[in-house]
Amino acid sequence: MRTQVGIVGAGPAGLLLSHLLHLNGIDSVVLERRSRDYVERRVRAGVLEQGTVNTLIEAGVGERMLGEGLPHSGIELRYGGAGHRIAFEKLVPGRTITVYGQQEVVKDLIAARLAAGGDIRFEADDVAVHSLEDAPYITFGGERLDCDVIAGCDGFHGVSRPSIPEGVLTAYEREYPFAWLGILARVKPSAEELIYACTDRGFALHSMRSPEVSRFYLQVPADEDPDAWPDERIWTELKARLETVPGFTLATGEIIEKGVTPLRSFVTEPMQYGRLFLAGDASHIVPPTGAKGLNLAVADVRVLTEALTRFYADGSTELLDRYSQICLKRVWRAQHFSWWMTTLLHTFDSDDAYARRLQLSYLDYVTSSEAAATTLAENYVGLPYEAAR
Ligand code: FAD
Ligand code: DHB
């Protein structure tokens, strides 16, 4: 079997790449380890930057998102007994975020690929990438896929990155001493906008998916067992961390999904080797506090699409050669923002009273100075894409 671009992984990165390449007349095959049902149900991120929303609309896959997504023009930072709104409409006029579940984006992309006759192989076993320097090919389930280029879109635990010879990549990494317990609950959101709460008991986040479904996260110890969190305990803790301002009551309901996500910062440089190009979580991870993971994957894929389109148009590898350099600028901005939001809002066991005072002082600054609030707002809604050329 032969295609132009062999794509490993049917997450947002791999699926969007396959779709954008198709729109530019380039063929691809997507190889995914899991079933279609599994990837369509995997609950993860929920905040789409303006640029991500525009990318999906321009690519013709934004219809359901425009109908069901929830546009937001602010978030609340809640601490010290008060809520403080970061008002995007004032700080970054014309730019908003849209709350729309990652698995909905994945469903929309799979539907678009299949409608266009796209080739996605779900439940592909033993995927391995070979001969990355010149004539790359992928093996899976006893088959062989020859291609011009391989896109490694297989997430942090995928096979693509570890297939690059030792010594080529440099990894930059930071682990955090806590994780997030994420839940989905069948209950009307208790607030119209997202609430990021910093308390002495730890961080909590109130998000949503629809007028009937809410999404919550709680800071918990690293490697926490979700079974240590029966529903009753989750609601008690969410109330303790969120019902901290006068007049706010948290509505509770049936918990329909529960999972623990470790928090990690990770970057590999470069993001390419020979004919293999890494995109999304395969090459970088951010802690979710800044809601950047999915949005960064989209930004990588935009650059890779443009570079591959140029390559197939006139044989030029000039943009492909600069792929890592172009992407890493945005990647590192998002790394810093995500680390900063995480540090600003979480409780660190190692913190002494002095460190806690510094944190509160910074929160006061961000919520009172227009300059500081604008820094948060412009990063949160997403900085403009740089022209790749
Ligand atoms: P993924 O979505 O990880 O997709 C990779 C795909 O490759 C998967 O479908 C996987 O099954 C497949 N794959 C892996 N290995 C192989 C293989 N060997 N062969 C074939 N296929 C393979 N970000 C936020 O902003 N907010 C959040 O709340 C949030 N929560 C998260 C919760 C979890 C549990 C995780 C893991 C991530 C979360 N993220 C969050 C990050 C965000 O979801 C990711 O940044 C985003 O999914 C990146 O997309 P991707 O396509 O690069 O990778
Ligand atoms: C959601 C996830 C995030 O990481 C975040 O910062 C905000 C919202 C969410 O899943 O809705």
From TrEMBL:
Organism, as annotated: Planobispora takensis
Annotated ranges, domain FAD-binding: 2-337
Entry protein name: 4-hydroxybenzoate 3-monooxygenase
Protein's UniProt keywords contain Flavoprotein: yes
GO terms of biological process kind: benzoate catabolic process
Swiss-Prot/TrEMBL keywords: FAD, Flavoprotein
Gene Ontology MF annotations: 4-hydroxybenzoate 3-monooxygenase activity; FAD binding
